[in-house]
Design brief:
Blueprint: E1 12-13, H1 16-22, H2 24-31, H3 40-52, E2 58-61, E3 64-74, E4 79-91, E5 103-112, H4 121-137, E6 143-148, E7 153-158, H5 161-180, H6 191-194, H7 198-201, H8 203-206, H9 212-236
Parallel strand pairs: 1-4, 5-6
Antiparallel strand pairs: 2-3, 3-4, 4-5, 6-7
Amino acid sequence: MRQYRYSDDDLLALSGIQHFYFCRRQWALIHVERQWEENQRTVEGRFIHERVDDPFISETRGEVIVSRSYPLVSYSLGLFGFADVVEYVRESEGISLPGRDGYWSVCPVEYKRGRPKIDKRDEVQLCAQVMCLEEMLHTKINVADFFYHEIRRRSQLIITDELREIVVFLSDEMHRLFNEGYTPPASSGQNCKACSLVEICMPKLTLKNSSVGAYLRKHVKDASVLSILSDKNRGEV
């Protein structure tokens, strides 16, 4: 288990790890520069989560206890946030729960508006939730679930060592860039079409080959050439 390296003042939003994986510039615009804009995807995503996130609801379904909007924190990763749903399933081994007999396994469930992604952006977010729960509850969690709204079914995620290592690396990088107050340059691609911050990011402008310095040098040079030509023309008159 990693050492607790962070205090309450150091904690960053766990939800940001998905943004960070998707695009470091997007993450910095939101979490360092505090900029945000809505689009259809973000509005739909928020609506779906609002239907799930009621911290006062706890259900018991047979051998399963369902807890909603579960607060999370990890002082080894330096992250805090909420799990949409945490399910406790009665097992022969697991953790004990106050006021409940027996032992229970723990499984977070993350609700998403769309369908499974081709990359790991959703997976690192859910794995980070798992690692928070493991630290808080002193247990080991090997699987977690997604519920994708577009396909209307659950999808299981195996929590591998590789995935855990990615989460550790990303959280360390998030803290490094946050402490530096650094916003990475744009990297234009297909992701830009789905990004709610594309008008703020302006990747086409920030990706121009000419830097400000090169732009100024070019125009100073042009001005010098024009001045020389002007002097030459005056001398020929």
